[in-house]
Each structure stands twice: as C-alpha cells, then as structure tokens.
C-alpha cells in the first residue's frame, strides 16, 4: 500500500514510485508537521529532521516560547494569526471580527482509490492505482474542521493534495484564505521555475534563485491567464533537463491562483499554492463545507525532463477523459485566419471541398456565424444562426460537409455578452457588473455572470439547440477577455467576493453538462489563445489551443514552455499562412508542418488561395501525421534543444514506451556561417539495443546514439527542419 501510519512515531509515510513524502504528529497538542519529501526511502520514522529537541522546543516543554516554535516548525498546513508569520494557508473572519485559526490533528483514515472533488476537476485513479489519506484537524475554539486529503499514484512520482473545510459551529464563518498545499523545504539554496507570458507569447520560462522573501506568481484575472500559468517548480541550483532534484507543483484550477516560494529566516523555503486570496471570501454557514481545488506534486530525481514526463503520464491517463482520451484527433482546417468574419456557405464549402481532396478530415467554422456578428463588436450571446451568411441553414452546410467525408466543428464564446446584442437588451443585468458604475469593456464585450443558475441554463440551452440541429462533432470554446467590475445584484453584500470562485464553478458545470450530453463531441478549449491552458480545463477538454500566435518559430518557445507540464497530445497547433498574421514572418511550409506535428496538428488558412507548391505538400504532411501521431501522442518526450537558452535551434524527441521507436524533430532557427553539421545526443533509448535510421538504413546502438550522437546535416538557411525516425531492430 502506498500510504502507511506508524503508531509509535505517529508518522504518515506516502510512497509513490520513486518518491517518499512523510508527515508526523508531535507534542501533546498534536501539531501536524512536514518531515520529508524526496527520493524514496525505506524508513518510516525520520522525525529527528524536525529538530524537536532543539530550542525553542515544543510548547509542552517550553510554552513561554510558543510563538518561536510556531514560527519555525515545518507546519503541514499553516494557519494565520497565532505565531507563524510565514505565508499561511487558512485565514477566517468570524462574526466577532477575529481572523486567527489554529488546527491540530484529531484522526485519520487510509483507503484505496481516489475520491472525486465536488464540483471541481481533479485527477482520478482506481483502487489498484491509488491510495488516499484523509487527515482530520480541528480548531476547537472555532469548531472548524479541516480535512487534508492526499492521494498517492503508486506507479508514478505523483501525489495530489486538496482540502475540505467544514463549519461545525452554530454561526457563520467567513473564509478569507484557503490554499490547497504547503511544503516546507529545509533549505533555501534552490532555484524556482515558473511560466509567464502575454497574449501571443504564452508560457515562456523564467528561472531565478530562491532568496529571502516571497517570489510569487498568480492571477487575479478570473482565469489562469496568459501572463502566468498555475505551475511552479523548485530545484537544485545545478539541476538541468536531465539531472538533479526537481519538485513540480501544478494547480488543477482555471481561475485566480497564487503560487509562491518564500525564503525564510532560517534558510528554509515555504512553497504554497491555491486560490488567490486577493479579493476572495466565502461564507461558510453552520454545517456547510468548502472544498479547495487540487494541487499536483511531482518529484523528479532526474531533472526537469523527468518531472515533465511524469506530469504528461499523469494527465494523459488520470485527468483527460472522454472518447478522445487515447485517440488520434481528426485533422481539422479552421476558417478564422482564412476569412475572419467575411464568409458564407459557398466560401466555406469551397474551402472544405479543396481540403477534403488533400486529406483534411474536419472543417471548423469559427467566429461570425450567428446573430448580426460581422465584426467583434456585437452579437455575443445571440446564438442563433445568421442565415444571410449560412444560406440554407446550418444543417444544410453540415450535411454538405459530411458528404465530402469530413466532420464539422463550430466555434462558441459562451461566457461573453456584447452590449450590442439582443441578449443584453433583454437582460442587461446578466453580465458581471457593479450597479451604478460604468462597466469596463474589453474587445467591446462583458462577461456573463455564470455564478447565476438562470444565466447558465440559458447559455447551455442555446448551445444545446445548435448542437442538436446538425451533426456537429467538435466545439471550440473560446473566452476572449478577463473579469473586472466583479459584482452582481443577487448575492448579499457579505457574499459578493464569492463571485470569482462561483464563476469558475459555473464554467465547470457548463462544460460538465456539455461533455455528458454530447460525449462524442471533441471539445477544444481556447481563451484568446492560451490564457486558460491549465489542468482544470484538461479535465473537460483533451486539447487546448496553445496560442493565437501560429508563427512556427514563436510556437517553438510556446510549445517548449507548455511541455514543461502539459502533454503534447493536449497542445492545439496548426499550420497557418504566411506572412504570419501575428508577427509577419515568412517560414517554409514544410517547417510549419514539422512544428505543428508536436501538437494536435491542423490547418489555419484558406487552402483555396495558397500556392500550388504549398498545397501539394499538405497530403505529405497529413501522411506524416498519421504515421507518427501515435508515437508523439503516447510516447515519452525528451527535450534536446532549449530555444530559450540556445536560440539557434530547437529539437524534441519522442520515444515509444517500450523503447522500440524514436522520432527526432529538429528545427534550424538560425543558420551558421562557416560551420559543419551539428551533433546532438539522443535520450531515453535502450542502450544495448540497435536502431535503424529509416531514411538511410544505417544501424547504431542505443548507446552510440545517446553518447556519441547523430549529425544534423543537409539543412540550408534559416527556419528549416528535418525528421529522423529510428526503429529498433
């Protein structure tokens, strides 16, 4: 069993594949402390690591220095106001205006399997795959119960955490801070790695030293955001892609978050993660519970790369669901960059006819098909087909596309409302707003108040009617602005700060209804590109549009950063036209295909207007996709190049789980004058096996390919690329 309890030492030991995580209950007051997190060890009792015999001692031996104890003890779930002045996970506001909380261990239970989290996305696993520990702690003064939930995935180096808070008192308690996880590391000589960006340049890497004070990232935008991703890792300062200890944390949530590493006075580091406390509050009435979202913790003893591959395996097998969980995705062509709002049935069918001849499998109709939507200034919320554009109606269009042997997909932006819309004119109070204050527009739209059931029901029924009207097999769910002016006229004054979280729960409810009623539909999430690329969304959609920037060279950075945490099978990536619509760069059509191969693969262009040379290349790219996608989607990813550190080239490698096959995708970003070929070393192969280069029939040992390497040659010019496919003989 992956979790055990030692009664003598009162310690809990959580064992994943190569990982141990240990906690212990100490002193007469039953403080729960963190003991160890790292490479798997056989010992159950390592409580000496908590230094309980060193001053200031535990309170039962030295109560005069209780505060000194609390401010140095590695508390498993720290609370606010009683003497621990580091970042806390739990804070309240009582009826009398008090904010302090102090919890102590009461009981625990260990069981096989993993529970669902009410109303929230979370990883899942069977009784054969997982063991769960629930530790119940109580603040006797407040009569507040805190249940800490841990699940170990025994065949992966993955442990998940969440928290459930229950009010057992007879009066309301307002929660003003509920984070989901805390780990105190007994060292500060570490680096912290985070992912940052903006629209069109999402998920770039930032690595810096942990130092005294708080190094925090987060979002207060109502979504996980373009700017920051809910991921943080701490690691040895010497850790590389392939070596060193790395601890990764990822928040399974799609709203406001906080992720922080705090260098503390005794050269320790406290890492916390959870819902951002900024502007958060939740009224907990007597008998009610609040469930905090899940944090995934990954340990790697083989550098950043192993951390990433563990995240990928966990999410592919224990987070992504539905019919497309393990399936190759249909190759689609999206009309957005081809037509923008200027299209009709004839234009769409012309694109579909030409695309179907080339092997494209799905046409996706993007923004502009509904209401009077001829620009991005109006009609959001009016989900009625515009038959002046879609002549003959939606069913006719879909049927004609199906006759070509293609599937049909459609774009929605369900969470938004335009001031110039029939919906807004009928229900101006349905948007998130502060009464009497002029609302802040973005892209000339407001955000619908999905904390309200009647709004959710209206939106769902509108989408449902469209999806039932024709054979629609794909939905692109978009969200093109963040939340502001957060308020409504429904909740009482003391509950207004709940809207942030209630909104996210409303989004999850809508997506759950959609995927439950239409399980055959492939749902792809999008938020102005990649502003909501988080594990919460992956629970409902097996793929997410990585960025509105489809430039192949910029995508190398975006896809590299995304792969830190998220599997390639989830990365929406397309071949688009040139000059690129975002950056104006011209790259070879062949290179664009190679870059999009490290993703779901598709097209974002007008296939009727591109050159014959490019058009002739599409069947070859599609053949390439079908040949290699199983390996790319299911295999282990090894990053050989790092375009952030060496911008001259990028290189990724996909290795089959049984080591029988390997694919290398190499992109030469900048050509080098007066240089010979470049040598790279492969990774992850079977040392004593032999591999045949499919193109040249040359055979080399796995040891030679990994230690001596291969030569990248025959590339001429910037932005060129090449594939290398090796098969074990």
Draw up the topology in text.
Blueprint: E1 3-6, E2 11-15, E3 19-26, E4 31-39, H1 66-70, E5 90-94, E6 104-112, E7 130-139, E8 144-153, E9 158-167, E10 173-185, E11 190-196, E12 204-209, E13 213-219, E14 228-236, E15 246-252, E16 257-263, E17 269-275, E18 282-284, E19 289-291, E20 294-300, H2 303-318, E21 332-334, H3 336-339, H4 345-358, E22 362-365, H5 394-403, E23 407-412, E24 416-417, H6 422-426, E25 446-447, H7 453-469, E26 474-477, H8 499-517, E27 522-525, H9 535-538, E28 543-545, H10 552-562, E29 571-572, E30 575-576, H11 589-597, E31 602-604, H12 612-634, E32 636-639, E33 649-655, E34 661-668, E35 678-680, E36 690-693, E37 699-701, H13 702-707, E38 710-712, E39 720-728
Parallel strand pairs: 21-22, 21-31, 22-23, 23-26, 26-27, 27-28, 28-29, 30-31
Antiparallel strand pairs: 1-2, 2-3, 3-4, 5-10, 6-7, 7-8, 8-9, 9-19, 9-20, 10-17, 10-18, 11-12, 11-14, 13-16, 14-15, 15-20, 16-17, 24-25, 32-33, 33-34, 34-39, 35-38, 36-37, 36-39
Descriptive report:
The chain is an alpha+beta fold. It has 3 domains: 316 residues, Distorted Sandwich (Beta-galactosidase, Chain A, domain 5), CATH 2.70.98.60; 229 residues, TIM Barrel (Alpha-Beta Barrel); 80 residues, Golgi alpha-mannosidase II (Immunoglobulin-like, Sandwich), CATH 2.60.40. It is built from 13 helices and 39 strands. The strands form 7 sheets. Strands 6, 7, 8, 9, 11, 12, 14, 15, 19 and 20 form a 10-stranded antiparallel sheet that branches. Strand 28, helix 10 and strand 29 form a beta-alpha-beta unit. Helix 7 runs parallel beside helix 8. It is globular, with a radius of gyration of 27 Å.
């Amino acid at each position: 069993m992956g979790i055990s309890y030692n009664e003598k030492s009162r310690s809990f030991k959580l064992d994943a594949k190569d990982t141990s995580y240990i906690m212990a209950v100490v002193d007469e007051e039953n403080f729960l402390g963190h003991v160890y997190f790292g490479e798997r060890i056989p010992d159950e009792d390592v409580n000496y690591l908590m230094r309980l015999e060193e001053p200031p001692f535990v309170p039962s031996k030295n109560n005069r220095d209780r505060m000194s104890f609390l401010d140095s003890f590695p508390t498993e779930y720290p609370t606010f106001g009683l003497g621990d002045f580091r970042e806390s996970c739990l804070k309240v506001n009582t009826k009398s205006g008090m904010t302090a909380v102090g919890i102590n261990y009461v009981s625990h239970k260990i069981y096989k399997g993993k529970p669902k989290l009410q109303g929230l996305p979370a990883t899942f696993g069977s009784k054969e795959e997982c063991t769960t520990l629930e530790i119940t702690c109580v603040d006797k003064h407040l009569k507040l119960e805190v249940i800490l939930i841990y699940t170990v995935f025994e065949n992966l180096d993955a442990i998940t955490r969440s928290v459930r808070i229950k009010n057992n008192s007879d009066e309301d308690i307002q929660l003003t801070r509920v984070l989901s996880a805390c780990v105190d590391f007994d060292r500060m000589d570490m680096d912290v790695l985070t992912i940052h960006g903006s629209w069109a340049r999402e998920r770039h890497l930032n690595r810096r030293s942990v130092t005294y004070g708080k190094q925090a990232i987060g979002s207060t935008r109502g979504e996980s955001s373009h700017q920051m991703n809910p991921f943080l890792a701490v690691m040895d300062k010497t850790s590389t892609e392939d070596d060193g200890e790395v601890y990764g944390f990822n928040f399974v949530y799609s709203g406001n978050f906080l992720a922080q590493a705090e260098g503390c006075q005794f050269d320790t580091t406290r890492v916390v993660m959870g819902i951002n406390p900024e502007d958060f509050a939740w009224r907990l009435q007597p008998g009610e519970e609040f469930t905090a979202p899940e944090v995934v913790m990954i340990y790697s003893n083989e550098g950043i790369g192993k951390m990433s591959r563990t995240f990928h395996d966990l999410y592919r097998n224990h987070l992504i669901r539905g019919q497309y969980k393990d399936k190759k995705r249909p190759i689609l062509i999206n009309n957005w960059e081809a037509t923008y709002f200027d299209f009709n049935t004839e234009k769409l069918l012309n694109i579909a006819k030409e695309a179907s001849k080339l092997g494209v499998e799905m046409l996706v109709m993007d923004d502009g098909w509904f209401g009077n939507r001829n620009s991005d200034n109006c009609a959001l919320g009016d989900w009625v087909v515009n038959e002046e554009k879609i002549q003959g109606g939606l069913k006719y269009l879909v049927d004609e596309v199906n006759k070509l042997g293609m599937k049909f997909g459609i774009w929605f932006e369900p969470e938004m409302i335009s001031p110039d819309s029939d919906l807004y004119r009928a229900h101006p109070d349905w948007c998130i707003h502060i009464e009497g204050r002029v609302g802040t527009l973005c892209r000339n739209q407001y955000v619908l108040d999905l904390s309200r059931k009647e709004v959710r029901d209206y939106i769902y029924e509108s989408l449902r009617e469209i999806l039932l009207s024709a054979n629609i097999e794909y939905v692109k769910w978009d969200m093109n602005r963040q939340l502001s002016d957060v308020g409504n006229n429904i909740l009482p004054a003391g509950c207004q700060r709940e809207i942030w979280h209630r909104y996210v729960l409303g989004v999850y409810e809508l997506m759950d209804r959609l995927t439950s009623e239409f399980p055959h539909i492939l749902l792809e999430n999008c938020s102005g590109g990649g502003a909501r690329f988080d594990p919460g969304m992956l629970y409902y959609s097996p793929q997410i549009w990585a960025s509105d920037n489809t430039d192949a060279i910029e995508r190398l950075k975006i896809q590299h950063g995304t792969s830190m945490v998220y599997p390639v099978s989830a990365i929406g990536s397309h071949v688009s036209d040139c000059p690129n619509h975002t950056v104006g760069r011209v790259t070879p059509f062949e290179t664009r295909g190679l870059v999009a191969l490290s993703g779901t693969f598709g097209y974002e262009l007008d296939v009727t207007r591109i050159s014959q040379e490019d058009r002739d290349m599409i069947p070859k790219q599609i053949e390439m996709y079908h040949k290699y996608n199983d390996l790319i989607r299911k295999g282990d990813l090894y990053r050989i190049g790092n375009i952030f550190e060496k911008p001259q080239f990028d290189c990724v490698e996909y290795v089959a789980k049984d080591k029988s096959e390997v694919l290398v995708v190499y992109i030469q970003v900048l050509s080098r004058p007066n240089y010979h070929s470049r040598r790279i070393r492969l990774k992850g192969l079977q040392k004593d096996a032999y591999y045949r280069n499919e193109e040249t029939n040359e055979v080399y040992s796995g040891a030679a390919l990994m230690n001596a390497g291969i030569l990248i040659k025959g590339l001429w010019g910037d932005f060129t690329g090449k594939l290398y496919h090796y098969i074990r003989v």
